[in-house]
Design a protein that fits this description.
Number of strands: 4
Strand content: 5-15%
Order of helices and strands: HHEEEHHHE
Helix content: 25-40%
Distance between the termini: 38 Å
Radius of gyration: 20 Å
Length: 167
């Protein structure tokens, strides 16, 4: 559904207008479509369960996985207490393997709340983890120096989250 509305400059020849409208209409019809934020929660949960089985021995079990529109500085977060994973609506525009990385990152927080070496060992079981971090960095949405396996300066956080964007 939806419609495409265009404007035509006065004096343009009829055939040129038709070609322009047809071309733009075809590009509009082929555009990638973002999933609605409230749609597909069961599918996201199944995907999270599949990733947890594949990379985390099935030990991470989220209560829910949902897109939210209010995460501008993070790609994902989770609450260890409620086991809810929230993904930024911005992830609807990235490749599936990048979304999978963020899901694995958040699932790993259900097992290791902080960014400890043990946490990063879990995340790095996902074979495209480094590439996905690079993809997010190239977009300017991931810190240039991710918190790779280093001992945390303070104790583990109660909530997990893909590190915020710089700035």
């Amino acid at each position: 559904g939806g419609r495409w509305v265009g404007r035509v400059t006065a004096g343009r020849a009829g055939a040129a207008v038709q070609r322009g409208v047809a071309g733009r209409g075809q590009r509009w019809a082929r555009r990638p479509r973002r999933p609605a934020l409230g749609v597909g929660g069961a599918a996201r949960r199944r995907r999270a369960d599949e990733l947890a089985r594949r990379y985390l021995a099935g030990r991470a079990r989220p209560a829910s996985v949902e897109y939210v529109p209010n995460q501008e500085r993070r790609f994902g977060s989770c609450s260890v207490a409620s086991r809810r994973i929230r993904l930024s609506h911005r992830l609807t525009d990235v490749p599936a393997w990048v979304r999978d990385y963020v899901l694995v990152h958040e699932l790993a927080h259900l097992l290791e709340p902080g960014h400890s070496p043990a946490f990063w060992r879990l995340v790095n079981r996902y074979p495209l983890a480094e590439r996905a971090r690079g993809y997010l960095m190239a977009l300017g949405l991931e810190p240039q120096e991710p918190e790779e396996p280093q001992e945390p300066a303070a104790g583990p956080r109660g909530k997990g989250g893909v590190p915020p964007a710089p700035g």
